Amino acid sequence: MTAIDVGHEVTIWMVDDIPARMFFGGQRWIVTDSPTRLRDSIWSAAERGRGLYGWRFQGTNDSGDAFVFDVFRGDASWHVHRTYD
Q: Among 6, 15, 40, 81, which is disulfide-ready with 70 (CB 3.0 to 4.6 Å)?
């Protein structure tokens, strides 16, 4: 398992409220599995009256490299919390 630096801009496109593709680390990623919703996780924010939520999914880039991404929705944008190879 390898951790990757996550200090990159993230844009996620959703289809029926489920991640379908993403731009991260200067690359386009296509979601190539069935995403799993992450709820009531480490990102819970009780002081805001609601929990933040995220997704875990496999993304594959144009070169065929595949990683599993944990992403979460903050107040204004998406964030990649962790990646796995």
A: 81
pLDDT at residue 61 greater than cutoff 80: yes
Mean pLDDT of 15-36: 96
Instruction: Look over the chain and give the mean of its residue pLDDT values, rounded to a whole number.
Output: 83
- Any idea what DSSP says for residue 85? -
How many domains does the chain divide into? 1
Neighbour-count burial for 46-59, b at 16+ CB within 10 Å, e otherwise: eeeeeebebbbbbb
Range 67-76 average pLDDT: 88
Q: What is the pTM of this model?
A: 0.78
User: At which residue do the structure tokens 């999914």 appear?
Assistant: 57
Look up the domain containing 48 and give its range.
Answer: 10-84
The verdict on residue 48 lying in a domain is: yes
- Residues in a beta bridge with 14: 19
Say if 61 falls within a structural domain.
Answer: yes
